[in-house]
Amino acid sequence: MQGTVDGFSYGLVTPLVAYLMACLGGALGLRCTTRSMLVAQSWRPGWLALGSAAIGSGIWTMHFIAMMGFTVRGAPIHYDKSMTFASLAVAIVMVGVGIFIVGYKGARGTALFTGGTITGLGIASMHYLGMAGMRLDGKLEYNTLTVGVSVAIAMGAATAALWAAGQIRGFLWSVGASLVMGLAVTGMHYTGMAALSVHLHGTGEPTAGDSPASLLAPMLIGPLAFLLLAGVVVMFDPLMVMGKPAVAPVEQKPGIPAHAHTAVQHNAHRTRFRSRRPVGHRGSRTPQNR
C-alpha cells in the first residue's frame, strides 16, 4: 500500500528554521575557513576543524528540523538514535576532509574541485544516512534520477561556497555565500525528499526507535550549543570580521629590521607627494658685487 507523505505538516515553519540553521552553520564554517588562510601554519588546523564542525552541525541540525515536519499518514515515525548521530559524524568528517584540502591547497583548480566534491558528498551522505535511521511500518523507495540531482546540487553548492571562502573579500562576501549555501543545502534536502516514496506494510506492528520529539532535545542542546560557541569565537575575533590580516606582510631582508623597512616605505610615500620647486627658482648663493 502506498503511503501518503507530507513534508510540510507544520507549514513553512520547519523549512524556514531549517534554512536559517543551514545559513548559520555555513556562515560560521566559511568564516573559519577564511580565517585559516590568514594565520600561521600552527593555527590553521584548529580553524579548519572548527569550520568543519560548524558546517557539519549546521546541515545536520537543518536536516532534522526539516524532518520534524515530515509525516506519513497512518505510520508513526521513529528514529534509530545510533544511526542518527552517526550521520552527524559522517557529515563532520567528510566536510572536514574537503575543507582541509581547500585550506592547505587553495580554493582553485583541482583542489577546489576535489574539496567541493568531497564536501558535497558528505552533505548528501548525511542526508541519506539520516533517512536510513528512520523507522516506520513500511519501506522507503527512491527515484534514482532525483537522488542524482540532489547529490549534484550538494556538490555544486559546496564547491561554490568553498570558492567564496577562498576569495577573502570581507564579512559581507561570506554572508552572501552562506545564504546561497543555505538555500542550496535546503534545496538539496527537499529535492532528496521529493525522490522518496513510502510503501506501507500495513501490519500495524509498533516500530522500534525514538520518536522525533525525543530527539529534539539533544538535537537542540548539542549542535546548537556548539554553533553558539563557534559564533562567539567568530564575533570576538576582529580578523574574522575584517577578512584580512591586521598587518600587511613586509619583505624580509638580511640585516634590515621590519620596523626600518616600514619607516622607509612611509618616507617614500611622503616624498611622493612633496612639492618640488624647479631648479631655476632656487635662490642664488653667489655673493653679489658691491
UniProtKB/TrEMBL annotation:
Domain MHYT: 10-199
Transmembrane segments: 12-34, 46-70, 82-104, 111-130, 142-164, 171-195, 215-236
Keywords recorded for this protein, A-Z: Membrane, Transmembrane, Transmembrane helix
Region (Disordered): 261-290
InterPro entries: MHYT_dom
Record Pfam families: MHYT
Protein name per the record: MHYT domain-containing protein
Compositional bias segments (type: Basic residues): 267-284
Superkingdom per UniProt: Bacteria
PROSITE patterns in UniProt: MHYT
Gene Ontology CC terms, in alphabetical order: membrane
